[in-house]
Design a protein that fits this description.
single chain, five-stranded antiparallel sheet, 23% strand
Length: 276
Amino acid sequence: MTVCIAAICDGGKAIVVAADRMFTAGPPINLEFETAEKKIEELSPSCVALLSGNSAFGTEIMQGALARLHGAQRPQVVLAAESVKESYAHVRATKVRETIIVPNLGPDFSRAEGLGINIPTYLKDQPNVYGQLTMVMSNFNMGSDIIVAGVDDQGARLAVIGHPGTVAWFDKLGYAAIGSGGIHATMRLSLGAHTRNSPLVDTLYRVYDGKRASEVAPGVGQETDIAIVYPDRTEQGSPELLKSLLELFKESGGKVPTSLDSIARVVQKEPNAGRK
């Protein structure tokens, strides 16, 4: 219940990312609320992760990924993505044990496990129970997806990590979106003919437009965070930039703007605009 978007631009020299701030609490609470907490998290100065789905699981996954990176300041994006993938698989395995294995097999299995006995051996005389347990374990889905977007010496890289702990690379396509609003954002970028060679300013507007289009989906909030990932840093979108994007979006009335000069002027005035 969210939307997270990433789009490579400028020939692979930068990535624009955006996300909402909506959090959804399931049964029995059944609440949706927006907070000051951002969903764009830094793995390193030039690599970010965007989280959709269960925020509690996402927090554990991110903590594990950061621990695996050992504070590396400029890791290859593929290494960052693999760290998230490994952490995802570890957290899923832990939750499978906590919510399926232990409750169903009880303390007797825990004692047997301490003696080195695994599940197939423990249930060798109960094949039906083993089959049912295996099926439930295989179907366990944390409902979490994560975008990893970064720029290293190979250029911009874009990956999505999802169930059951696999990586899909979107470098060639040039963009990806996850969450309940992901399909809407993806369609807007697709209809806008976005590619990894699209100019930065165009991409800023296309990503913002995709975020706004996704707000019709359940669980997508109106608050917006946007950032630009460069080879040496990540710049958070300033209030002035967000204001300019909103004004242009309203003026265009859902059509393609005839000019993006207002956005270009704001980007050029940013403190690090000329920095490489």
